[in-house]
Design brief:
Oligomer: heterodimer
Order of helices and strands of chain B: EEEEEEEEE
Number of strands of chain B: 9
Largest interface: A-B, 29 and 25 residues
Helix content of chain B: under 10%
Helix content of chain A: under 10%
Distance between the termini of chain A: 37 Å
Structural class of chain A: mainly beta
Strand content of chain A: over 45%
Shape of chain A: globular
Order of helices and strands of chain A: EEEEEEEEEEE
Structural class of chain B: mainly beta
Amino acid sequence: KAGVTQTPRYLIKTRGQQVTLSCSPISGHRSVSWYQQTPGQGLQFLFEYFSETQRNKGNFPGRFSGRQFSNSRSEMNVSTLELGDSALYLCASSLGRNPRGEQYFGPGTRLTVT
Amino acid sequence: LAKTTQPISMDSYEGQEVNITCSHNNIATNDYITWYQQFPSQGPRFIIQGYKTKVTNEVASLFIPADRKSSTLSLPRVSLSDTAVYYCLVGDATGANNLFFGTGTRLTVIP
């Protein structure tokens, strides 16, 4: 079974621009979560989508948004990029059942904002 | 929101057993405890999950006391390839609450 894939793997953007990152979960997984990882703040939860609905949201500004499609693929968007948005963005998928089980992480997208 | 506290780093010699403790004083009734391992430039990888008492799988054991305010990940006979960051994660069983990874514990295995 193919793992979680994220595209693109690397991205360089300029302050003020916007960016869209994509995540394809493992087949059959209905939950997709997004995380931001930086050296200073560690792994921080952004949001989770389950069956096309945002089920949970972390403490990030409204510039960070996401969506999930009917095939469970998910995108996250960051508008008006700031230097502090430079990070590794990780996507994780799971069955989304109760209790929350194992999450499978993708390799991440390394975003650099200049 | 149940937050976690872990040691920032630990060193161990090859072949030893390593115990990493995580504190989660305000864990909620519905929360499960999950541990992940992360190597540089990779996404975290699931190690083990538990709710109470002891859970064991082929790679680790998880010990959770009765009050569930802490948990201990036990790695038997570590090797150099176990050098990684280990995260303790406390999350709601229903998926309704945020997941908090914390800063993790950087384990360095020494030859």
